[in-house]
Model the fold of this input.
Amino acid sequence: MIIALDAMGGDNAPQITVEGAVLAAKEFNGKILLVGKEELLIEELFKYHKRYDLTRLNIEIVNAGEVVTMDDHPAKSVRSKKDSSLTVCAKLVADGKADAFVSMGNSGAVMAAALFYLKRIEGVLRPTLVTPFPSINGAVLIADMGANVDCKPEHLVQFAVMSDIFCKNVMGIENPKIGLVSIGEESTKGNELSLSAYKLLEKTDLNFIGNIEGRNIPLGQADIVICDGFVGNALLKFGEGLAEFMFKLIARGMKKHPIAWAAVPFLWTTLKDLRKKLDYSEFGAVPLLGVNGVCMIGHGRSNGKAVKNAINAAAKSAQYNLTSAISEALSKG
Done:
């Protein structure tokens, strides 16, 4: 298994990406390709020579002289910066020299690179970004999370089909329940897009449970939640803000009532579990489904732990032939 890592992608690259690669290499059986400016990566990697035997870590540096920044135009940067760490990663997968690639960089550019070099799976109208969202019963998969802000009903159906395959093969849920985000549970409620998508989803062989309201997503009513990228991204950003708000509120309450600190030892396990469920670094990165290869996109503010988990997620996704499974499923329907 060979995973290409865009070592120059992200707000704190290459320090954090190299740290994540080293952490992953300690428990990863395959090879990690660190793609980026060679001199910088050698310098960063050498910082770990006292703690780890670098000769035992299966990490190889692949030189790439350019960098796609967070401010770059997605499509233009992919076309103009042929030797960027991001485009080189995509080329490695397209040429069969890597099984997957991971980037914490400009998400629009990552998607553009995947589409340009890996191409869409035959029959896929639009690839979709899916992401796990914490719920009372574990992770809920949301599709789409921002790749497609304007959608047609047929797009949402394909998002459901691809998410169903990912959920079964990678997340291990045998018959995932699929809900469609709407303003009410009744089939007659929603906008034109959701009403039309509802009718199409009803006709599929998927385990479609109908409409789901926003309040029921964290309650685990569905395993997969389908919506357009505008709604999905708003849900995720609100969730991130809510999680941060909760912990700040708890900390503020503790300061106001010092005696409350006495309860911390008894609540520590619960608080630790809550933080873990709400921590995006636990997931590492999210997959772009619908392209001919494994592409994982992480948060720009990722830490070393998130990069490590992103590499592990990419390896797990690459173990399953999702491309063939998605192609076969779409050809049937």
